[in-house]
Amino acid sequence: MKKFVLFTPLIMFFIVFLTSCEYDNYEEPKSRLYGKIVYQDEPINVGFNEVSFELWEPGWQLKVPINVIVAPDGSFSALLFDGTYKLTIPTWQGPFKSKVDTMTINLKRDQELDIEVEPYYMIRNPNFSVSNNVISASFGLEKIITGDEARDIEKVYLYVNKTQFVDIQSNIVKSELSGSDIENFDLITLTTPIPNLIVRQDYLFVRIGVKISNVEDFLYSPVQKINL
Amino acid sequence: MKKYILILSIIIFFGWGCDDNEFLNRKPTTILMPEDVWQDNELAFSVLADLYRRLPEYQTVDFWGDFTTFNMAFASNFGDYWRHQNAEWSYDEWGLWNYGLIREVNLFIKNAEDADENILSEKNRFVAEGRFVRAWLYFELVKRMGGVPLILEPLTYDFSGDPSYLQYSRAKEHEIYDFILDELDAIKEDLPNDVNIKSRATQALTLAMKSRVALYAASIAKYGVTTPTVSLPGGEVGIPAEKADSYYQEALNASEELFKDYPSYSLYDRKEDRSENFSYIFLDKSNNPEVIFVRDYIQSETWDGRSNIWTLHNQPWSVTEDLEGGRLNPSLNLVQMFEKLDNTFEQFKTKTEDGEYIYYDNIQDIFSDRDPRLAGTVILPGSKFKGKEVDIWAGYKLPDGSIITGDDFGQRKVLPDGSTPVQVVGMDGPIDGREWSAQTGFYVRKHMDPKTGSGQRGLKSDVWWVRCRLGEVYLNAAEAAFELKDLKKAADYINEVRKRAGFDIPLNPEEISFDRIVHERTVELAFEGHELWDMKRWRLAHKVWNGEAVDLSDCPWKADQVNTRPFGLWPYKFYDPGNPNHGKWVFEKRMPSIVTAADRFRLGNYYSRISDEIVNNNPKIVKNPNHD
After folding, report:
1. Which end of chain B has fewer CB atoms at under 10 Å, N or C?
2. Closest chain A residue to B619, measured at CA
3. How far is CA B556 from the centre of its chain?
4. Cβ distance of B548 and A169 shorter than 8 Å
């Protein structure tokens, strides 16, 4: 009996604290919204943590957007509750223009969504090669937006890094070319010598970056691994 | 029965025992009510003193770490290494929305206005000072957030359930600047003109502040066109370009009025040695003619902000008076910006063109012929603090290029062909990764108190924090004159400051350029809390801190040189007995290994984020541009 009295609080403790969670907690968001930022089915590659868009769920008292970050390869994903969301890309986001002001998304279970946008430029046929300790890149630039809204190229870069995160901030060596010095937009070449690596590795990651004037976010080519 | 009588008498005793009205309405003894405060000059002044104390500032002597944000210095403190390891600044950084304080100031102004002049004899001065504090607060807001709601009376909620009458929309950015300039004009005559009033508003302060405020507005108008996306269609952010000239003129007029009509103010010039003279601008508290507005401190054992902790936190380790110091290490980026005495720029020469080391006889020789302000701003290797030479050197360099050094302050080791251990590294370092050592090879001198005891935790320093001084006003005038194409005048004003600094050759009007203006402000006003706001108003911030991990700039005179990582300059003793260069000094440029990221200022950093909470409370608020 004495033992029983001693154990009662302990048993109560287990009952209260270990079984209650299931009942009084909210269900976690389970529906996944995923996809890519694309132009004509081709994903638009951007910098790490640079481009995001907003999801708004109308009907609530307070208005706070859900920010969805776009990954360097142009993909995104978000775990959400089922509901109706309004998707909007702020005008200053990304090296592209949004085609529509707002998209309405009815989310029920997982949904794939490719967001079609209009980039200022597209990088065409990026090609990387290594010879004689020099990395060279060739690519073309196609002007997509023409007319009044067209923008010039400020600079193009070739970035090299040891990891697959390659952009303006993460690189061990780069070479650059001013937009005004580009003669042939169909074939631009950039070269850079391979730097001395402190820890030897026989591969590197490379990427083309394009700075468009008066657009903050860079346009990139897909990251490519090259063997030395 | 007895019991009932007892209860009844207790009820009667306590029920009638005192006058409820009087008993329950006693005056509190721990708080003063408005009707008491506004009967007495001293009490009203104490309310005002509290408002002055709470003026928001970004970089001050209260916190050294903010001065490392922009790579003018390195944070040599274990808990602050993250400052050099984060690539971006949050959009919330430098944000401010202190309408609570603005309401208190508005209440102060209203109460002062309502007070009876026969009782509160200094009423007009109080009103003017309240309006000055309010103008300063709106200046802080407009620098950080752009145009904000302009609220000039204490707002009170009536509990009707509908707060919409309290919801103000944002004013245009130039409207806030205009408001500040008009206020400063309006209050000037009600303020005293006394050069010895430093911590309260004076006539000279209104002019000095006008010169600063108008200059900010002018440069946003002029240089805002280079960043067209940093604007809002309603004008809450951005100033029309055509307003630039009138603002520049206003800045120039205010500065010149201060020079002409207030002769009791002059540039500080009391010490023979130019470097010492420059550092004493900030230390000399007796009749200092240059300083216009300060936050004052006293020596105290308490930690409530009444004493200055700058010296305690940043004193060189070898002369430290307590168990800490050495936190702020000025970077080579800043040090190499100080030009030579013949008005030319040059990077420090460490190697010849053939890649051979240059050997210096004395450790200080590499810094000779430099702007004397360098030694007044930075504690260089081989210079003195508190009468004692600091000990900054990184080790012995052998002929084969290898280095003998230690990882503790002043460590001893046996040298090759030696027998007894000798000191192989300075008592101040530099030791890479060792907190409080001079990891860039430099310590800071500006604001450092040379008095004995100023570096003790139980005493600290009473050096004041200079918020506004005449030297800045001269540079404001020079910049305004330059932008108005009056190069002669610009050269005259900039030469005033340079002559005092110790330059014998004045600059010609043709030599005045935008780069010159930017450079002069950077070196004269280093560690005075101007760099962020200057780079923002010139719209240079996104170019100077562009996120690219580049080497040390090789053009220290350029306004838009990339400055994303702090570098250092380490002295080594050359060790090769028998060699004529034995015992001489060689130098190496290097970046502290703690620095792993390059700073990136995004366009959205020009104006800080207005949080969703604020927008939800007041739907009339427009968000700032370029935020996600």
Report:
1. N
2. A63
3. 22
4. yes
Quote the longest CA-to-CA distance of chain A: 95
Residues 6+ apart with CB under 8 A from B150: B138, B168, B171, B175, B176, B179
- Is B612 in Cβ contact with A62 (below 8 Å)? yes
The CA-based diameter of chain B, rounded to the nearest angstrom, is 117
Residue of chain A nearest B225, judged by CA positions: A214
Tokens of A169: 């901030």
Nearest CA-CA distance, residue A14 and chain B, Å:
40
Buried residues in B207-239 as b, exposed as e (16+ CB within 10 A): bbbbbbbbbbbbbbbbbbeebeebbbeebbbbb
Collapsed DSSP state (helix, strand, coil) of residue B225: helix
Q: How many CB pairs under 8 A join A and B?
A: 40
Tell me, what's the pLDDT at A171? Answer: 87
ipTM of the complex: 0.80
A148-184 per-position pLDDT tens digit? 888 899 999 999 999 999 988 888 888 989 989 988 8
Q: In sequence order, what E strands does B307-458 have?
A: 328-330, 378-379, 384-385, 388-389, 396-397, 403-404, 412-414, 421-423, 443-444
What contacts B611, CB < 8 A, 6 or more positions away? Answer: B92, B95, B97
Q: Count other C-beta atoms under 10 Å from residue B464's C-beta.
A: 22
- Distance, in Å, from the CA atom of B586 to the CA atom of B570, rounded to the nearest integer, reads 8
Residues in chain A: 228
Best mutation site among A54, A55, A92, A93 for testing chain B: the one with the most B CBs within 10 Å? A92
B382 touches chain A (CB under 8 A): no
The residues, ordered by sequence, that sit 6+ positions from A181 with a Cβ below 8 Å of its Cβ are none
Across the interface, do B628 and A168 touch by the CB < 8 Å criterion? no
The model's pLDDT over B602-618, given as tens digits with 9 standing for 90+, comes to 999 999 999 999 999 99
The CB density around residue A169, as the number of other CB atoms within 10 Å, is 23
